[in-house]
Protein backbone atom coordinates (compact mmCIF):
# COMPACT_ATOMS: atom_id res chain seq x y z
CA UNK A 1 0.00 0.00 0.00
CA UNK A 2 1.32 3.45 -0.94
CA UNK A 3 0.47 6.13 1.61
CA UNK A 4 0.77 9.89 1.52
CA UNK A 5 1.47 10.90 5.13
CA UNK A 6 1.00 14.43 6.44
CA UNK A 7 2.19 15.24 9.97
CA UNK A 8 0.57 18.49 11.09
CA UNK A 9 1.23 21.06 13.81
CA UNK A 10 -1.15 23.93 14.49
CA UNK A 11 -0.14 27.53 15.08
CA UNK A 12 0.53 28.26 18.76
CA UNK A 13 -2.25 30.86 18.92
CA UNK A 14 -4.92 28.39 17.76
CA UNK A 15 -6.65 26.45 20.52
CA UNK A 16 -6.71 22.63 20.29
CA UNK A 17 -10.52 22.67 20.08
CA UNK A 18 -10.61 25.24 17.28
CA UNK A 19 -7.99 23.35 15.31
CA UNK A 20 -9.69 20.02 15.86
CA UNK A 21 -13.00 21.44 14.65
CA UNK A 22 -11.39 22.88 11.50
CA UNK A 23 -9.31 19.80 10.73
CA UNK A 24 -12.07 17.23 11.19
CA UNK A 25 -14.80 19.22 9.46
CA UNK A 26 -13.89 21.90 6.93
CA UNK A 27 -10.53 20.37 5.96
CA UNK A 28 -11.99 16.84 5.72
CA UNK A 29 -14.82 18.00 3.48
CA UNK A 30 -12.51 19.85 1.09
CA UNK A 31 -9.99 16.99 1.03
CA UNK A 32 -12.67 14.47 0.08
CA UNK A 33 -13.43 16.49 -3.04
CA UNK A 34 -9.86 15.80 -4.20
CA UNK A 35 -9.62 12.15 -3.17
CA UNK A 36 -11.14 10.68 -6.31
CA UNK A 37 -9.06 12.92 -8.58
CA UNK A 38 -5.88 11.55 -6.98
CA UNK A 39 -6.78 7.87 -6.67
CA UNK A 40 -7.07 8.03 -2.88
CA UNK A 41 -9.35 5.25 -1.63
CA UNK A 42 -8.76 5.41 2.13
CA UNK A 43 -8.24 8.51 4.26
CA UNK A 44 -7.64 8.46 8.02
CA UNK A 45 -6.91 11.36 10.35
CA UNK A 46 -4.99 10.32 13.48
CA UNK A 47 -5.48 12.74 16.37
CA UNK A 48 -2.72 12.86 18.99
CA UNK A 49 -4.07 12.43 22.54
CA UNK A 50 -1.51 14.56 24.38
CA UNK A 51 -3.32 14.38 27.74
CA UNK A 52 -3.89 10.64 27.62
CA UNK A 53 -1.81 8.80 30.24
CA UNK A 54 -1.00 6.00 27.81
CA UNK A 55 0.41 8.50 25.30
CA UNK A 56 2.57 10.02 28.07
CA UNK A 57 3.78 6.56 29.12
CA UNK A 58 4.81 5.64 25.58
CA UNK A 59 6.78 8.87 25.12
CA UNK A 60 8.55 8.18 28.42
CA UNK A 61 9.37 4.55 27.59
CA UNK A 62 10.78 5.35 24.16
CA UNK A 63 12.47 8.61 25.20
CA UNK A 64 11.09 10.58 22.27
CA UNK A 65 10.50 14.31 21.83
CA UNK A 66 7.48 15.81 23.58
CA UNK A 67 6.64 18.44 20.92
CA UNK A 68 4.49 16.00 18.97
CA UNK A 69 2.28 16.57 15.94
CA UNK A 70 -1.37 17.47 16.49
CA UNK A 71 -2.60 15.22 13.69
CA UNK A 72 -1.25 12.67 11.24
CA UNK A 73 -3.27 12.42 8.03
CA UNK A 74 -2.85 9.23 6.01
CA UNK A 75 -4.13 9.00 2.44
CA UNK A 76 -3.86 5.52 0.93
CA UNK A 77 -3.35 5.59 -2.83
CA UNK A 78 -4.95 2.84 -4.88
CA UNK A 79 -3.36 3.71 -8.23
CA UNK A 80 -0.10 5.67 -8.20
CA UNK A 81 -0.33 6.37 -11.92
CA UNK A 82 -3.72 7.99 -11.32
CA UNK A 83 -2.19 10.00 -8.48
CA UNK A 84 0.55 11.26 -10.81
CA UNK A 85 -1.83 12.03 -13.67
CA UNK A 86 -4.12 13.89 -11.26
CA UNK A 87 -1.24 16.04 -10.07
CA UNK A 88 -0.44 16.88 -13.69
CA UNK A 89 -3.89 18.38 -14.34
CA UNK A 90 -4.07 22.15 -13.93
CA UNK A 91 -7.54 22.17 -12.38
CA UNK A 92 -6.50 19.58 -9.77
CA UNK A 93 -3.31 21.47 -8.95
CA UNK A 94 -5.35 24.64 -8.44
CA UNK A 95 -7.72 22.77 -6.09
CA UNK A 96 -4.75 21.50 -4.08
CA UNK A 97 -3.31 25.01 -3.81
CA UNK A 98 -6.69 26.40 -2.71
CA UNK A 99 -7.01 23.70 -0.04
CA UNK A 100 -3.49 24.45 1.18
CA UNK A 101 -4.18 28.19 1.36
CA UNK A 102 -7.36 27.58 3.37
CA UNK A 103 -5.14 26.13 6.13
CA UNK A 104 -2.84 29.17 6.39
CA UNK A 105 -4.31 30.55 9.60
CA UNK A 106 -4.45 27.11 11.28
CA UNK A 107 -1.38 25.08 10.24
CA UNK A 108 2.26 25.86 10.99
CA UNK A 109 3.66 24.54 7.72
CA UNK A 110 7.30 25.07 8.77
CA UNK A 111 6.75 22.42 11.49
CA UNK A 112 4.64 20.05 9.38
CA UNK A 113 5.62 17.72 6.55
CA UNK A 114 4.57 15.22 3.86
CA UNK A 115 6.18 11.95 2.75
CA UNK A 116 5.26 8.84 0.79
CA UNK A 117 5.62 5.37 2.30
CA UNK A 118 4.96 1.72 1.53
CA UNK A 119 3.56 -0.74 4.08
CA UNK A 120 5.64 -3.65 5.35
CA UNK A 121 3.50 -5.64 7.85
CA UNK A 122 5.32 -7.08 10.87
CA UNK A 123 2.47 -8.33 13.06
CA UNK A 124 -0.68 -8.82 11.06
CA UNK A 125 -4.09 -10.44 11.26
CA UNK A 126 -7.11 -10.91 9.04
CA UNK A 127 -9.08 -9.14 11.75
CA UNK A 128 -9.52 -5.40 11.32
CA UNK A 129 -8.34 -3.13 14.14
CA UNK A 130 -9.28 0.52 14.51
CA UNK A 131 -8.70 3.04 17.29
CA UNK A 132 -11.88 5.08 17.09
CA UNK A 133 -14.03 6.53 19.87
CA UNK A 134 -16.12 3.37 20.08
CA UNK A 135 -13.22 0.89 20.45
CA UNK A 136 -10.79 0.15 23.26
CA UNK A 137 -7.70 0.68 21.08
CA UNK A 138 -5.08 3.37 20.72
CA UNK A 139 -3.19 3.70 17.47
CA UNK A 140 0.51 4.28 18.03
CA UNK A 141 2.25 6.36 15.37
CA UNK A 142 6.05 6.53 15.55
CA UNK A 143 8.06 8.92 13.34
CA UNK A 144 11.72 7.77 13.60
CA UNK A 145 14.68 9.93 12.57
CA UNK A 146 17.78 7.98 11.56
CA UNK A 147 21.16 8.36 13.20
CA UNK A 148 23.81 10.55 11.52
CA UNK A 149 26.05 8.54 9.24
CA UNK A 150 23.34 6.11 8.18
CA UNK A 151 21.72 6.30 4.77
CA UNK A 152 17.98 5.84 4.33
CA UNK A 153 18.57 2.34 2.93
CA UNK A 154 20.87 1.33 5.80
CA UNK A 155 18.43 2.49 8.46
CA UNK A 156 15.47 0.82 6.78
CA UNK A 157 17.33 -2.46 6.30
CA UNK A 158 18.13 -2.57 10.03
CA UNK A 159 14.53 -1.65 10.82
CA UNK A 160 13.01 -4.48 8.79
CA UNK A 161 15.67 -7.18 9.11
CA UNK A 162 16.77 -6.67 12.72
CA UNK A 163 14.13 -4.73 14.62
CA UNK A 164 11.14 -6.35 12.94
CA UNK A 165 12.59 -9.81 13.51
CA UNK A 166 13.36 -8.98 17.13
CA UNK A 167 9.79 -7.80 17.73
CA UNK A 168 8.33 -10.99 16.25
CA UNK A 169 10.43 -13.09 18.64
CA UNK A 170 8.22 -11.69 21.39
CA UNK A 171 4.98 -12.17 19.45
CA UNK A 172 3.20 -13.74 22.45
CA UNK A 173 4.12 -10.84 24.75
CA UNK A 174 4.20 -7.92 22.32
CA UNK A 175 1.33 -5.59 23.33
CA UNK A 176 0.48 -4.71 19.72
CA UNK A 177 -2.32 -6.63 17.97
CA UNK A 178 -1.17 -5.19 14.65
CA UNK A 179 2.18 -3.62 13.74
CA UNK A 180 3.14 -2.14 10.37
CA UNK A 181 6.36 -0.49 9.26
CA UNK A 182 5.75 2.26 6.71
CA UNK A 183 9.05 2.76 4.88
CA UNK A 184 9.56 6.20 3.36
CA UNK A 185 10.12 6.09 -0.40
CA UNK A 186 11.67 8.87 -2.38
CA UNK A 187 9.99 10.21 -5.50
CA UNK A 188 10.04 13.20 -7.81
CA UNK A 189 6.27 13.15 -7.36
CA UNK A 190 6.41 14.14 -3.67
CA UNK A 191 9.01 16.78 -4.52
CA UNK A 192 6.65 18.21 -7.14
CA UNK A 193 3.72 18.03 -4.74
CA UNK A 194 5.56 19.95 -2.00
CA UNK A 195 6.95 22.47 -4.48
CA UNK A 196 3.41 23.12 -5.65
CA UNK A 197 2.51 24.12 -2.10
CA UNK A 198 5.69 26.06 -1.36
CA UNK A 199 9.01 25.30 0.31
CA UNK A 200 8.05 26.14 3.87
CA UNK A 201 7.73 22.56 5.16
CA UNK A 202 9.84 20.95 7.87
CA UNK A 203 11.44 18.65 5.24
CA UNK A 204 12.26 15.68 7.45
CA UNK A 205 15.03 14.26 5.27
CA UNK A 206 16.30 12.03 8.08
CA UNK A 207 12.87 10.44 8.54
CA UNK A 208 12.85 6.73 7.64
CA UNK A 209 9.06 6.46 7.58
CA UNK A 210 6.54 5.63 10.26
CA UNK A 211 5.63 2.73 12.53
CA UNK A 212 1.94 2.10 13.08
CA UNK A 213 0.60 -0.19 15.78
CA UNK A 214 -2.77 -0.88 17.35
CA UNK A 215 -2.58 -1.24 21.13
CA UNK A 216 -5.39 -2.47 23.36
CA UNK A 217 -5.67 -0.10 26.30
CA UNK A 218 -5.60 -3.02 28.72
CA UNK A 219 -2.31 -4.36 27.31
CA UNK A 220 0.10 -2.32 29.50
CA UNK A 221 -1.50 -3.80 32.64
CA UNK A 222 -0.08 -7.20 31.67
CA UNK A 223 3.44 -5.87 31.08
CA UNK A 224 4.65 -5.72 34.69
CA UNK A 225 6.91 -8.77 34.84
CA UNK A 226 10.60 -9.57 34.16
CA UNK A 227 9.93 -11.03 30.70
CA UNK A 228 8.10 -7.89 29.57
CA UNK A 229 10.84 -5.68 31.00
CA UNK A 230 13.48 -7.74 29.16
CA UNK A 231 11.51 -7.42 25.92
CA UNK A 232 11.13 -3.65 26.17
CA UNK A 233 14.79 -3.22 27.11
CA UNK A 234 15.91 -5.19 24.05
CA UNK A 235 13.53 -3.37 21.71
CA UNK A 236 14.46 0.14 22.87
CA UNK A 237 18.17 -0.77 22.91
CA UNK A 238 17.91 -1.97 19.30
CA UNK A 239 16.08 1.21 18.22
CA UNK A 240 19.05 3.27 19.39
CA UNK A 241 21.27 1.43 16.88
CA UNK A 242 19.58 3.17 13.93
CA UNK A 243 17.27 5.87 15.34
CA UNK A 244 17.85 9.14 17.21
CA UNK A 245 15.03 8.92 19.82
CA UNK A 246 15.38 12.54 20.96
CA UNK A 247 14.52 13.80 17.46
CA UNK A 248 11.80 11.21 16.87
CA UNK A 249 8.13 11.31 17.88
CA UNK A 250 6.00 8.64 19.50
CA UNK A 251 2.30 9.50 19.32
CA UNK A 252 -0.71 7.86 20.92
CA UNK A 253 -3.63 8.66 18.62
CA UNK A 254 -7.34 8.26 17.94
CA UNK A 255 -8.40 7.44 14.38
CA UNK A 256 -11.04 9.38 12.45
CA UNK A 257 -12.07 7.44 9.33
CA UNK A 258 -12.83 9.97 6.58
CA UNK A 259 -12.90 7.55 3.62
CA UNK A 260 -12.70 3.76 3.64
CA UNK A 261 -12.76 1.88 0.34
CA UNK A 262 -10.76 -1.22 -0.72
CA UNK A 263 -7.15 -0.52 -1.71
CA UNK A 264 -5.10 -2.88 -3.89
CA UNK A 265 -1.72 -1.57 -5.04
CA UNK A 266 0.28 -2.82 -8.03
CA UNK A 267 3.80 -4.20 -7.28
CA UNK A 268 6.49 -1.52 -7.00
CA UNK A 269 9.06 -1.54 -9.83
CA UNK A 270 12.06 -0.60 -7.65
CA UNK A 271 13.18 -0.54 -4.02
CA UNK A 272 13.39 2.77 -2.11
CA UNK A 273 11.83 4.77 -4.96
CA UNK A 274 8.51 5.25 -6.75
CA UNK A 275 10.11 6.71 -9.90
Considering the chains and any ligands shown, give keywords for the structure:
275 residues; alpha+beta; Alpha-Beta Plaits; 7 helices
How would you describe what is shown here?
The protein is α+β, with helices and mostly antiparallel strands and 275 residues long. It has one domain: Alpha-Beta Plaits (2-Layer Sandwich). The protein has helices at residues 16-35, 53-62, 80-88, 90-101, 152-169, 188-197, 226-239; strands spanning 2-8, 40-48, 71-77, 113-123, 137-143, 176-185, 209-216, 249-260. Strands 1-3-2-8-5-7-6-4 form an eight-stranded antiparallel beta barrel. Helix 1 runs antiparallel to helix 4 and helix 5 (152-169) runs antiparallel to helix 7. The longest helix has 20 residues, at 16-35. The mean pLDDT is 93.
Order of strands, main sheet, comes to 1-3-2-8-5-7-6-4
Pairing-aware structural class of the strands and helices?
A: alpha+beta
Averaging pLDDT over every residue, what do you get? 93
CATH-derived topology: Alpha-Beta Plaits
Shape: globular
| CATH hierarchy class name | Alpha Beta
Q: If classified by CATH, what would the architecture be?
A: 2-Layer Sandwich
Secondary-structure element sequence? EHEHEHHEEHEHEHE
Q: Strand content of the residues, in percent? A: 25-35%
The number of helical runs is: 7
Count structural domains.
1
Q: Could you describe the largest sheet, including whether it forms a barrel?
A: 8 strands, antiparallel, barrel
